[in-house]
Each structure stands twice: as structure tokens, then as C-alpha cells.
Amino acid sequence: MDLALCEEDRALRESVRRYVETTVNPVWQEIDRSGRLPESVLAGARELGLFGMAIPPDYGGLGLTVLQKALVHEMLGRGPWGLASYISVHTGIGCTGLVLFGSEAQKRHSLPRMASGEWLGCFGLTEPQSGSDASNMQTRARRHGDQWVIDGHKIFITNAPYAHHCMIFARADEGITAFLVDTDNPGFKIGQIFETLGHQGSAICELVLEDCRVPAAAVVGEVGRGFDIAKRVLAEGRTMLGARSVGSGQKALELALEYAESRATFGKPLIEHQALAFRIAQMAARTDAGRGLVYRSAWLLDRGEPAVRESSTAKLFAGEAVWQTVDDAIQLLGGYGYVRGEYMLERIWRDARVVRVYDGSSEVQQMVIAQRLRKGEIETAW
Ligand SMILES: Cc1cc2nc3c(=O)[nH]c(=O)nc-3n(C[C@H](O)[C@H](O)[C@H](O)COP(=O)(O)OP(=O)(O)OC[C@H]3O[C@@H](n4cnc5c(N)ncnc54)[C@H](O)[C@@H]3O)c2cc1C
Prior knowledge:
CATH class of the largest domain: Mainly Alpha
CATH topology of the largest domain: Butyryl-CoA Dehydrogenase, subunit A, domain 3
Bound molecules: flavin-adenine dinucleotide
Helix content: 40-55%
Distance between the termini: 10 Å
Strand content: 15-25%
Shape: globular
Strand order of the largest sheet: 1-4-5-8
Radius of gyration: 21 Å
Number of helices: 12
Number of strands: 10
Structural class: alpha+beta
CATH architecture of the largest domain: Up-down Bundle
């Protein structure tokens, strides 16, 4: 078994770490206050080719492996989740469906401009009455001659206010179908834009689809097979969210360690109080364990395995672990940990809370793992 990263993967990881630490983190407070990503931050991501990380080189992207994408997401997790989400929704659920299931014409039309960051993609699955049980969606698609007419509501759709198009899932007579809908379509309207606890810099909003007419060529993949696309796209997304959680956990650990070395109580640095040293050791062990699960899931996906159980395990564990780790780090900072807008930890705490909710909540991941166990996957592939 060889667990070493190759030179190319290390270089990629270091270039993204440098970008996050030198271009993004110095302006985290500005992003948090304004809810906007400065042009310098977006330009840095474009320069690194991050908008095209999931797009094959034939269409102008970097064509990274799943493991390489996980390394990028781990490093993005060291910074504000608004940026990580802005990039990951576009490159993950925004691009992957098109890359894997789009027609050649759809790919030629959209992917080069998505790779450069000129066009942003988003993904409209969740509805006001169906989130965890997304297959229960009510949005309808009806065929009218050579067009489809879509009517319904979507909710919490990331990036939609900035996006060029959205992959919309709607129920046709043949079953759930995926459509590529331009956001300037007269039947596509942005509804409420929500204020959120964290994630500043990427917006989530309601979508209203009213008599939204698209050509037959807007169907992605086969009519009636859209839910398979959603599931495939989300499985990879779970590994990436696990990776982002690991990056945030690592950052919280580093901040806590630095503080524990410099702050003294009862005549010695915090780190020399055994109770706190043990707490930090547990933060490190949890982060390491999450990283191992994430890399394993990415490795399996790169080998063409579905990695259903493994990606759910990675997201469940890393998402719960970062929550505990950042809470421990805030505890270590005492009163300073609770001050808003000054120490990064409270921002990580607000940002990371959502990983247990979206892209399949922790409860949904446990449902998936239990189903796989009942199907005979008692031991995971390794
Ligand atoms: C910041 C953010 C960004 C998002 N971006 C997108 C996006 O880009 N595109 C998109 O389509 N969606 C997006 N979502 C939606 C997100 O995926 C859903 O919120 C999530 O799937 C949960 O659905 P829900 O909110 O309807 O909760 P519900 O499904 O109503 O669940 C409520 C609670 O009950 C639990 N629960 C539900 N059923 C069970 C069960 N059987 N057993 C045990 N527990 C259960 C859930 O885990 C959850 O804790 C986003 C959400 C947020 C917060």
C-alpha cells in the first residue's frame, strides 16, 4: 500500500494553500462583513484554473482527478466557506453533471466558458417541501411540441443570483429529468435571497419557474433518468465536503495550538496543562482520521468505484469532526473565542455548521451507510 502523494499532487496542494493563506485569509473579515468576494480573490482562483478543475483539458479545464480535487477542496477549507462554496458548487454540482452526462453540443457550448470562470453554474434540486427526500419533488416538466415547459419552486440554490445557467430537476411523465436552464430565461426568476449564519460571499436563494420554456436540446442525459445524474453528482460532492471539513478542522487545530503556546494561565502556557494538551491531541486525531476517510473515498472514485458508503462515511465523519474540533478550539480561546469578527474560529464555527445539513445531512449519510450494510457491505473496500 502506497499512501504517498506524488510530486504533482503536492505542488497542486501547496499552490492552493498559498493562494488561500496569502490572498484570501487576509480579507476574510471584509468578506464576512460585506458578503461579497473581492475581485482579487476571484482573480486568484481564475489564475489557478480552479473554476475549470473538474472540466477536461479538451474543453479548457484542468481535468483533475478526484483525489486532486479533494486536495484543492481541503485547502479551500482553510479559508472562508463562502469562497469554497462559490467554487465548489460551480465545479462540483454545477459542472460534473454536464461533464459526465451532457451532449457534445452542450459541452462545447458551455464548458470552455465555465472553465475560465466567465460562466458560473448552479444546481436546482431542493424544493420547499422536499430536501432530504429530493425524489419527492413537485416541479413539473411538460412537453409542448419541440419544447419543454417547466413550472415549480426550488429553494436554497447556491450561486443562482450570479449564475449563467442552472441544472434544474423536474418531474416529467417519464420520470425526473435534468434540464440546463439559462438564468436569463423569462420563465426563470430569482425569489428570496436568504441571510445565512455563515457562508458569506455565496448566496442561496429561492427560484421560481413559471411557464419556463426550454428547447429539447436543454435535456441533460436521458429523459426520465435525471435522478441518477443527481445521485452521481452528489456522491462526489460528499467527498469534497468531507475534504473541506478536514481543511477547516486543520486550520482550527493550528489556530488553537498557536494560542495554547502563547497564552499562559497559572504560571504556564495553556498547552502545558495536560487537559488542554489532550484536547488538542484529540483535535489532531479526529482531523487525521477524517483526512484518511476522504482520501480513501477519492481514491475509490478515481478507480471508477461508486464509493457510495465510503463517500457518505467521509462526509459524515469529517463533518461531525470539524464541528467538535472548532468547538474545542473556541473553548481553548476562552472569551476571545466568542468575540465576533476578530478571531477566525467563530467564523469557521458559523461556516462549518452547515456541512451537517446540506448535500445530504448527517442523518441522510447514516441512512445511506445503514442501507449499504444491509445490502451486505459489512467491510469496506480497502
Ligand atoms: C447553505 C446551503 C446551500 C445549499 N445549496 C443547495 C444547492 O445549491 N442546490 C440544492 O438543490 N440544494 C441546496 N441546499 C439545500 C440542502 O441540500 C437541503 O437543505 C438539505 O438537503 C436538507 O433538506 P431540508 O432543508 O428540506 O431538510 P429536511 O429534509 O426537511 O430535513 C429536516 C431535518 O430532518 C432530518 N431528517 C429528514 N428525514 C429524516 C429521516 N428519515 N430520518 C432522520 N432524520 C431525517 C434531516 O437530516 C434534517 O436534519 C442548500 C442548503 C443550504 C443550507
